């Protein structure tokens, strides 16, 4: 048998998929108050009545999407039982970030395959007309979920859906919109006419505390892991780390999954606290790398410039010197450098992302006022994540030994 043959290896998982993001448990723990309120707003649908529009707010990983899937699954099951015509659709606006693309997606969701339309070649009004025709031909109640709604570049779809009957675009169908957002101020940025037309109910999801996260993890443990696979302190430690990360259940679950994967990789007899700690380090490194890759080219050049000073042990470095190095690197990459004012703003962005740290210094009349910057992440990790930018720009002497 080859070392690279694939053979089943059950330990420590009974069903690893239970820890994945798309899994919806039969019951949700730690969200009783939110579920009760959410359920009451959706209740009219089972009577054949149009529910109010709903907006869910709260930080990432606090159960907004999971609660929506949980309740809509049950609503669809009950609608069959009570013979009520209810249809649902969930659109993630991170992937469909314009009203046009959302409308096209909804048309294709509810129309027959032979009548589906492409996402180019139509005016917005033509796409909306197609949407109204599809919804009205189906009839019944439509509950349309716009997840990560704050990613929409325009608010037209919110206005159009909420005014469809009033504007006599549809007659037999009724539409309820559910918006899900991590931005607590999202509604404040909408135009007055859109806010007025939505007339929505708002439900705020609080962050999980460590005890609630333990409930979430214990619920998944039984289904995900073989009996006795976890050391006693594994789940409390994962929950504690999750609570530190703004009560993010997704991060706590990812950490438990990572710890299990490490134990499996090492043929360990049990998942231990050490697996959790090392798994956390690996996840943090992955998160840093993803954050760097998501920066635009000029932001990466600013980070590259700071990295060259860090490699030469010349940090903290003043903004003026950092800007000069950024300008040099931009010219090496055949790019026109942005202004120093722009770069100062980007330094704030990099600090907010946890990639750098900045301090304000004031030395009075003699030295003046200025900011200094240092790298906040492991140098080798940053160099590795900046690989594409470094290759395009050229390898600075200071980081040659880190390539």
Architecture overview:
With 403 residues, this protein is an alpha/beta fold. Helix content is 48%, strand content 12%. The strands form 2 sheets. A 5-stranded parallel sheet has the order 2-3-4-1-5, with helices on both faces. A 3-stranded antiparallel sheet has the order 6-8-7. It is globular and about 75 Å long.
Mean pLDDT: 93
End-to-end distance, in Å? Answer: 37 Å
Tally the beta strands: 8
Order of helices and strands: HEHEHHEHEHEHHHHHEHHEHEHH
Helix content: 40-55%
Task: Give the overall shape.
Answer: globular
Major sheet: arrangement of strands:
2-3-4-1-5
Strand fraction equals 5-15%
Structural class: alpha/beta
CA-based gyration radius: 26 Å
The total of helices stands at 16
For the largest beta-sheet, the strand count, sense and barrel status come to: 5 strands, parallel
Ranges where pLDDT stays below 50 over 5 or more residues in a row are: none
Walk me through the topology.
Layout: H1 32-42, E1 54-57, H2 64-81, E2 86-92, H3 99-110, H4 124-138, E3 140-147, H5 156-162, E4 173-181, H6 192-198, E5 201-204, H7 210-224, H8 234-244, H9 249-265, H10 273-293, H11 297-311, E6 317-318, H12 319-332, H13 340-352, E7 356-362, H14 364-367, E8 369-375, H15 379-385, H16 387-393
Parallel strand pairs: 1-4, 1-5, 2-3, 3-4
Antiparallel strand pairs: 6-8, 7-8
Helix pairs in contact: 3-4, 5-6, 7-8, 8-9, 9-10, 10-15, 11-12
């Amino acid at each position: 048998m080859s070392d690279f043959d694939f053979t089943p290896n059950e330990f420590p998982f009974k069903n690893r998929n239970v820890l994945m993001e798309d899994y919806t448990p039969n019951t949700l723990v730690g969200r009783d108050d939110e579920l009760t309120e959410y359920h009451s707003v959706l209740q009219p649908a089972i009577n054949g009545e149009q529910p109010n529009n709903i907006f869910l707010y709260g930080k990432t990983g606090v159960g907004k999407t999971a609660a929506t899937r949980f309740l809509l699954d049950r609503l669809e099951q009950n609608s069959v039982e009570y013979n009520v015509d209810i249809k649902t659709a969930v659109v993630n606006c991170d992937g469909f970030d314009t009203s046009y693309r959302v409308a096209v997606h909804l048309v294709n969701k509810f129309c027959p395959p032979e009548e589906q339309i492409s996402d180019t070649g139509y005016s917005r009004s033509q796409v909306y007309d197609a949407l109204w025709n599809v919804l009205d031909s189906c009839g019944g109640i439509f509950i349309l979920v716009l997840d990560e709604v704050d990613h929409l570049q325009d608010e037209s779809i919110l206005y159009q859906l909420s005014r469809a009957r009033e504007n006599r675009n549809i007659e037999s169908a009724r539409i309820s919109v559910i918006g899900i957002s991590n931005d607590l101020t999202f509604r404040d940025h909408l135009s007055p006419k859109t806010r007025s037309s939505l007339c929505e109910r708002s439900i705020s999801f609080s962050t999980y505390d460590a005890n609630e996260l333990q409930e979430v993890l214990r619920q998944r443990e039984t289904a995900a892991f073989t009996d006795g696979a976890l050391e006693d302190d594994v789940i409390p430690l994962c929950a504690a780390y999750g609570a530190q990360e703004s009560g993010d259940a997704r991060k706590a679950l990812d950490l438990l999954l990572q710890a299990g994967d490490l134990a499996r990789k090492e043929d360990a007899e049990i998942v231990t606290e050490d697996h959790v700690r090392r798994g956390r380090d690996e996840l943090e490194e992955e998160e840093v790398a993803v954050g760097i890759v998501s920066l635009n080219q000029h932001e990466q050049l600013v980070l590259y410039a700071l990295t060259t000073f860090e490699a030469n042990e010349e940090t903290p470095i003043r903004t003026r010197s950092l800007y000069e190095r950024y300008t040099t690197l931009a010219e090496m990459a055949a790019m026109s450098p942005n202004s120093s004012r722009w770069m100062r703003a980007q330094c704030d962005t990099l600090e907010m992302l946890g990639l750098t740290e900045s301090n304000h210094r004031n030395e009075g009349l003699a030295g003046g006022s200025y900011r200094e910057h240092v790298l906040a992440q492991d140098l080798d990790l940053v160099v590795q994540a900046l690989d594409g930018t470094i290759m395009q720009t050229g390898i600075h002497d200071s980081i040659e030994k880190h390539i």
